[in-house]
Amino acid sequence: MQEFTRDENLDDILSKIEQESGELSAEAAEEGAVPVGRNIKAFREKMGLTPQQFADKLGLSSALLTSIENRMLSPSLGMLVHIASVFGTTVSSFIGGQPERDYCVVRKEDHANVSRVGLKDGEKTYMYQSLGSGKAGRKMEPFLLKLQPTPESKITRSVHAGEEFIYVFSGEVEVLLDNNRELLRAGDSIYFSSTTPHHVHSAKEDEEASILAVLHAGN
Fold first, then answer.
1. pLDDT tens, position by position, 29-86
2. Domain extent at residue 116
3. Is position 102 within any domain?
4. Residue 30 included in any domain
5. Which helix (H) or strand (E) holds 11?
6. Please, which residues have CB within 8 angstroms of residue 88's CB and are 6 or more apart in sequence?
7. Rg of the chain over all Cα atoms, to the nearest angstrom
8. Where are the beta strands (DSSP E) in the chain?
């Protein structure tokens, strides 16, 4: 089963990045952001796998994995859940968190910011904060997300195992599910299978939207 739709612009993006200086984008270097790519690389090396072997197990290209590990690009939440599911671990393996136990309490001041990295033109799609870090053996991954609008030309639907639940706190959110479009406003929610090609973004130009998203890996 295809785990992720391929971004038809991915090769162009990687080529553009390689032609540039190699410095991190402003968002990648944002103070306080969790270095997800570096943590994924450390996890891969601990598993004793080469980038190609690791990428093959995930159904990704080694070029994409290398860009993620070098923090040129950042993985989506769906990709993190997929990686965790394939290797029998949790998303916290990549975004960090407190030691795991039977339950967890995440205080407001302890939220860990993880920025999804944009290109050097300043584009970004969302920032997320984990709310489940510390719960041992969890099947759900809850997050707070701040969504940005995404140009139609940049939208690539993702596909991965499991289910997702989204509740909108503020703003307007567009959810693309295969060939369907759903517009959600504050107080609206949606629950869908992650095996349906999907994309979620702020529906209003230049306006952020805030949501609660709960992902279930499906295992």
1. 454 567 888 889 999 999 999 999 999 999 888 998 998 898 777 787 878 888 888 8
2. 10-216
3. yes
4. yes
5. helix 10-19
6. none
7. 17
8. 113-115, 126-130, 140-147, 163-170, 172-177, 180-185, 189-193, 198-202, 209-216
